[in-house]
Fold:
Amino acid sequence: MLDRGLLRNEPDKVREASLNKGEPCPIDRWLLLDEERRNLLGSTESLRRRRNELSQEVSSLKKSGAPADSQIAESKKVGDSIGQIDKELSAIDREMAKVELRFTNIPDPDVPVGKDESANKIIRTSGVKPSFDFEPKPHWEILGNLFDQNASGDIAGANFILLRGWAARLQRKLINWMMNFHSEAGMEEIWTPFLANRESMTTSGQIPKLEYDMYHIEKDDLFLIPTGEVPLTNIYRNTTLNEGDLPVKLFGYTPCFRREAGSYGKDTRGLNRVHQFEKVEMVRFEHPDNSDKALEEMVIHVEKMLSLLELPCRISILATGDLSFAAAKCYDFEVWSAGQEKWLEVSSISNFRDFQSRRGMIRYKPAGGGKPLFVHTLNGSGLALPRIIAALIENNQTEDGKVRLPSVLSAKTGT
RNA sequence: GGAGAGGUGGCCGAGUAUGGCUUAAGGCGUACGCCUGCUAAGCGUAUGAGAUUCACGUCUCCGAGGGUUCAAAUCCCUCCCUCUCCGCCA
Structure:
């Protein structure tokens, strides 16, 4: 959600942001509603004031036994007018709230402008792509039966993962390693619900835009979380923190559920694109002055993880057209996958500034006193499992179909 | 799923039977001041949020939403959440 002052005073900035991100921009409608609303508010407030005065008069007249008929009659008339105006006002309020959820966040000034991912800028590439004296295989061939698509298909359907034996254990080991890594960096470990309600989804920004990309349990109006960002961010919904509490750094493991409707076809082989995947997610609540620095810190942190996993990686800053609805700035991490010979996205790290906190009323009380202010929220994957597994397996394969894992995983050779 | 008890400002908590004298008492906490060898105590003052306005101010908010009334924290309806017990179940 954007600040009403911004919408009111700098509509061109909002238009430009929407244009660059390729999002609709109902600013003209909003401006109209806003003006109408303020007019009606003025009328209803002075009427209410009058009614309050009359109530006082009625009260004291009755106590002294005097008649209050004329006051009561006027108050009734005033009340009717209030009722009428309030009806209009609440219709406007409802529409404004709906319209406001449709404004995308404003990209940071240093975000490259461009209509899609082709305008993303690679910041740096690290690690060395492995070379082979044989033809490297894609992970689904190396894994063979350990990646049992017949079983997952029977259990749930296409594009679900079922791992067996060594592969299943590798996933568990990786989750463990990632969580220990964050823990040692001083973040608080969180275990969350994997379903979330409509308010939570609205706060983190999945609703309204992505509502139909999520699994929805109609009976209870609950959604399967598409990312751990949702429960972690909503921990402090409708909460006022103290300035001294900031920054709050959290992480948690969650499965992530995505319908991926309409995405069948390219890039869906193997572990690349699935309906349920595992992820360890980091979320930070930051003082507004510190969120830029925090974003860079998170980038370094994730880069460290990938280098320990010995995975060649490429970091890009996303162009406006590729930036998600709620984000102001985002870095993507891709790892090299030798068998498929392509880069796979394994982490995005974003600064949302006050976009989410405004939706969810996540604030902090300034130490020097004064009104509560909105925190900045950031989040980043650390990391998404299936593609990490794919890259690990492909990059470390041997000619006889085995896998030699990097030392941090201290694993025996597989398959 | 059934029965019961609750939800009031940062926290605790009064007010709900009998609607108006509560534009929510009191306490704790917090901040500042006084006092004081120091600290504590004591005394004093201040201290919720949102909307709107250039401002003074005004309006709104007692879980959420509706209703009754001249007037609702208080009466009525619907829903949500928490706690206790029962049932079912990993």
Observations:
- The domain at 117-410 of chain A is CATH 3.30.930.10 (BirA Bifunctional Protein; domain 2).
